[in-house]
Design a protein that fits this description.
Shape of chain B: globular
CATH superfamily of the largest domain in chain B: P-loop containing nucleotide triphosphate hydrolases
Largest sheet of chain A: 2 strands, antiparallel
Number of helices of chain A: 13
Strand order of the largest sheet of chain A: 1-2
Helix content of chain B: 10-25%
Bound molecules: adenosine-5'-triphosphate, magnesium ion
Number of helices of chain B: 8
Mean pLDDT of chain A: 89
Mean pLDDT of chain B: 89
Strand content of chain B: 25-35%
Distance between the termini of chain B: 38 Å
Oligomer: heterodimer
CATH architecture of the largest domain in chain B: 3-Layer(aba) Sandwich
CATH class of the largest domain in chain B: Alpha Beta
CATH superfamily of chain A: MetI-like
Strand order of the largest sheet of chain B: 6-7-8-3-9-10
Strand content of chain A: under 5%
Number of domains of chain A: 1
Largest interface: A-B, 19 and 25 residues
CATH topology of the largest domain in chain B: Rossmann fold
Radius of gyration of chain A: 25 Å
Shape of chain A: globular
Order of helices and strands of chain A: HEEHEEHHHHHHHHHHH
CATH class of chain A: Mainly Alpha
Structural class of chain B: alpha+beta
Low-confidence stretches of chain A: none
Number of domains of chain B: 2
Structural class of chain A: mainly alpha
Radius of gyration of chain B: 24 Å
Number of strands of chain A: 4
CATH topology of chain A: MetI-like fold
Largest sheet of chain B: 6 strands, mixed
Low-confidence stretches of chain B: none
């Protein structure tokens, strides 16, 4: 009897696996294929007009960290690369933190509205997704550029005497990324705040917790899954951002995404681009592991 | 102990919403709940019991009126500044904390030292008999166990007043009975004032020192269970607390001439004027069924008999058709020996018939 049902169960499992094969194949190739290609390319020689020459070489990896002076051939750390990497990490972190600071009250506000209002507000949050990223970023550009909306307004009001130089700076990139990625923070935060039992706030107050303590000791630990997924959803695309730094950062304030593009384009150094891509992936992986560890640290001994 | 010790509400009024959607949840309620008392608020759904508790806990502020604790006005103190704790109907245990951490939360927030928190938590765990579950999360507990943790959590900071909003309604009958005696024991052991809300009149009668019966935002009557049961102020209280029979008649001197015929003596004097039309009540267990006519009895016809296990409820029709229910102890056979249509006499226990003061 039990062996019969066991066999049936096993067969059902087998059928399940069989049915999901297409998805698994797609996943395997879709997810690991490009990574594998990048990994292999990073150990090859660059071709003269782009592409790669199939010859093993560690030059690309060497060049990521170290540069050789064109004249005397001395070696020094590849400052430019490190600056770009550091800027990418810094801007992404700032964007993640700031979208959280703005996104948390927003998500809280939405989750505590009556149901009809809530649907409307969520709908409004998703509206930016209807427009192409490029166009949205250009819109920001129009607002913050020297002769843009913001400066014109401030000048007319007499608050400033000369235009604020915001555009083509790290700050401009930060503003743009915050704007673009804010919904990605708000939505997962909303999802977990929506599931949060508001009576727990009252229970906290009732047990002598101040507002700040209720936030820190009751709300944040319980909505943590939303905070984690929101942060991940913002941090990862910020780190690899391409369009925003390109349009708002100008040519100078490159992020790693732009720099990689440069290697595959004008730089004609595919292996270096590939090596940088792998590095980008590693940063993301390390950041994720550290972050999730850190975020779960409190669980066992709050 | 001064006269002001305990919780007091003075003309507390609470209105929710505005304009068309205005709801008067509490209508000028005044009450004094003494220190160390087990006080029960009883009333139908929506009568304002939770609202009154929320005013005392500080989750709401009254539209007008004041709330006092030991003579001090606490109307506008936030909940975290009041020595009042709540056992929520839904328990509202913190899902991310263990049982022990839940219980220690209040003390920790008050800034007590860790050692002190730990020892109080131990004590509380023992008090509610949950020592073996200290490290579990609330989701790993049964309803009754969660109930105990909620109780321990609210008791741990040693509040002056404990508010319990229908804490037993989610439990099954057996567990509820167990928790009732547990609650009573805890109240006696700790000496803390308990303000307990329930729908269940039996629960109210067995556990309370005093009961306040509410209806649509007002307190109708406050008194000991015995007072409330034997001398209900009005028709609503009489029917809400236990089953009762209503008989109409004309008031005479210390007696009532019933519309159904016969004159019966009254149990207690009444303020109603002699000669006025009044309603009197008598409980089903205060009536005897007899075979032959005797002084102070009324003829009646059996209309129905309902078996309840330990007792049976027999329905009778009086001469004018008024329905009267009588509770009879079930004999061993379970058959009370009355059949439908049988003509008998009902003898009302002398002094059991009460004129309702409030004839509204
Ligand atoms: N936040 C609120 N907003 C509007 N109306 C409310 C609010 N809270 C309660 N009410 C209304 O106030 C009245 C009293 O509610 P309350 O919760 O005090 O009743 P209750 O006696 O506790 O009822 P129950 O036994 O069902 O819990 C009800 O008519 C209710 O609809
Ligand atoms: Mg209620």
């Amino acid at each position: 009897m039990s062996t019969d049902s066991d066999r049936l169960e096993r067969q059902r499992n087998r059928n399940g696996w069989l049915l999901s094969t297409p998805a698994l194949v797609l996943l395997a190739f879709g997810a690991t294929g490009p990574l594998l290609i990048m990994f292999v390319y990073s150990f090859l020689e660059p071709g003269k007009y782009g592409n790669v020459i199939w010859e093993f070489s560690t030059k690309a990896w060497f060049n990521v960290f170290v540069q050789r002076d064109i004249f005397d051939g001395t070696l020094s750390p590849a400052d430019a690369h490190l600056t770009i990497l550091w800027r990418s990490v810094k801007l992404s972190l700032m964007t993640t933190i700031f979208t959280f600071i703005v996104g948390f009250p927003t998500a809280w506000f939405i989750a505590t509205r009556p149901p009809r209002m809530r649907t409307l507000l969520l709908f409004l949050i998703t509206i930016p997704f209807w427009t192409n990223l490029l166009i949205r970023t250009f819109a920001i550009n129009q607002i913050i550029r020297n002769e843009g909306l913001l400066n014109t307004l401030l000048l007319k009001l007499g608050i400033i005497n000369e235009p604020l130089l915001i555009i083509y700076s790290d700050f401009a990139v930060f503003i743009g990324m915050t704007y673009v990625y804010l919904p990605l923070m708000v939505l997962p935060l909303f999802a977990s705040i929506d599931r949060f039992d508001m009576r727990l706030v009252e229970a906290g107050y009732d047990l002598y917790a101040s507002r700040w303590q209720v936030l820190k000791r009751v709300i944040v630990p319980i909505v943590k899954p939303g905070i984690i997924s929101g942060s991940i959803l913002v941090f990862i695309p910020s780190l690899g951002a391409y369009v925003t730094p390109r349009i708002l950062g100008g040519g100078r304030n490159m992020m790693i995404g732009n720099f990689i593009e440069l290697q595959f384009g004008q730089g004609r150094n595919w292996p270096l681009g590939a090596a940088l891509s792998v590095i980008l992936l590693l940063i993301v992986a390390v950041a994720l592991v550290v972050y999730v560890r850190f975020a779960n640290r409190g669980d066992s001994n709050v | 102990m001064s006269a002001q010790d305990g919780v007091e509400a003075r003309n507390a009024r609470k209105v929710y919403g505005t304009g068309q959607e205005k709801v008067v949840a509490l209508d000028n309620v005044s009450i004094v709940i003494k220190r160390g008392e087990f006080f029960t608020l009883l009333g139908p759904s929506g009568c304002g019991k939770t609202t009154l508790l929320r005013l005392i806990a500080g989750f709401e502020t009254p539209t007008s009126g004041t709330i006092l604790l030991d003579g001090t006005d606490i109307t506008y103190d936030p909940p975290n500044k009041r020595p009042v704790n709540t056992v929520f109907q839904s328990y509202a245990l913190f899902p991310h904390l263990t049982v022990a951490q839940n219980i220690g939360f209040g003390l920790e927030m008050r800034g007590h030292a860790k050692a002190e928190v730990d020892s109080t938590v131990e004590e509380m765990l023992a008090l509610v008999r949950m020592e073996s579950m200290a490290d579990r999360k609330p989701t790993q507990l049964s309803g009754g166990q969660q109930q105990r943790v909620a109780l321990a959590r609210a008791l741990a900071p040693q509040p002056k007043v404990l508010l319990l909003d229908e804490p037993l309604s989610a439990l099954d009958l057996k567990l509820r009975k167990e928790m009732q005696s547990e609650l009573k024991r805890l109240q006696l052991e700790t000496g803390i004032t308990f303000i307990f809300v329930t729908h269940d009149q039996e629960e109210a009668l067995t556990m309370s020192d005093r009961i306040g019966v509410m209806k649509s935002g007002s307190l109708l009557q406050v008194g000991s269970p015995r007072e409330i049961y034997t001398r209900p102020a009005d028709r609503f209280v009489a029917s809400f607390i236990g089953e009762t029979n209503f008989l109409t008649g004309v008031l005479g001197k210390d007696a009532i001439t019933l519309d159904a015929g016969g004159t019966l003596p009254l149990g207690a004097s009444t303020q109603a004027k002699s000669g006025s039309k009044v309603t009197a009540s008598i409980r089903p267990e205060q009536i005897r069924v007899i075979e032959t006519d005797a002084p102070g009895s009324l003829p009646a016809t059996v209309t129905e008999s309902v078996y309840f296990g330990t007792d049976s409820h027999c329905h009778f029709a009086l001469a004018d058709g008024t329905e009267v229910v009588v509770r009879l102890q079930s004999p061993a056979s379970g058959d009370v020996g009355l059949s439908r249509g049988q003509n008998v006499f009902l003898r009302f226990e002398p002094g059991a018939l009460m004129v309702l003061e409030d004839q509204a």
